[in-house]
Design a protein that fits this description.
Elements lengths: L1 E2 L1 H16 L9 E2 L1 H8 L5 H7 L8 E3 L2 E5 H11 L11 E2 L2 H4 L1
Antiparallel strand pairs: 1-5, 2-4, 3-4
Length: 101
C-alpha cells in the first residue's frame, strides 16, 4: 500500500481547518501504542515489542509518559517495512495493484 498524496493533502487541509475550530479534533493527528494495535490488527503487546526491539521509529512526542507518533510517521514506517495497515484513520492509502486484482 502507498500513501495517496492527493488524499493526504486533502486531509492536511481538513486538519488545518479543524485546528482553527473550537472543540475536539475529528482526526487523530498523533497515535500511540494502543492505536497501532488497531491500525495494524496485531495483538495488544506487539507494538510494545516493536518499540522495545527498536523496530518503531523514534517517537515524535509524549503524552502522559506515553510515546506518540505523527500519523504520517507511522504511514511512512509501514511503507518502508511493508507492514499492512488494516485501519487507515485518514483514508489516504491506495490498494496495491496486485491486491485490487
Amino acid at each position: 500500500m502507498k500513501v495517496n498524496q492527493v488524499k493526504l493533502k486533502a486531509v492536511t487541509r481538513r486538519i488545518a481547518a479543524d485546528l482553527m475550530t473550537p472543540g475536539p479534533l475529528s482526526l487523530p493527528v498523533m497515535v500511540g501504542l494502543k492505536e497501532l494495535v488497531r491500525m495494524f490488527g496485531v495483538k495488544d503487546n506487539t507494538p510494545y515489542q516493536w518499540r522495545s526491539k527498536g523496530q518503531l521509529p523514534k517517537e515524535d512526542g509524549e503524552v502522559s509518559n506515553n510515546p506518540q507518533w505523527k500519523l504520517t510517521t507511522i504511514y511512512a514506517w509501514a511503507e518502508e517495512t511493508n507492514r499492512k495497515i488494516v485501519w487507515d484513520p485518514w483514508d489516504v492509502l491506495d490498494e496495491d495493484a496486485d491486491e485490487a486484482a
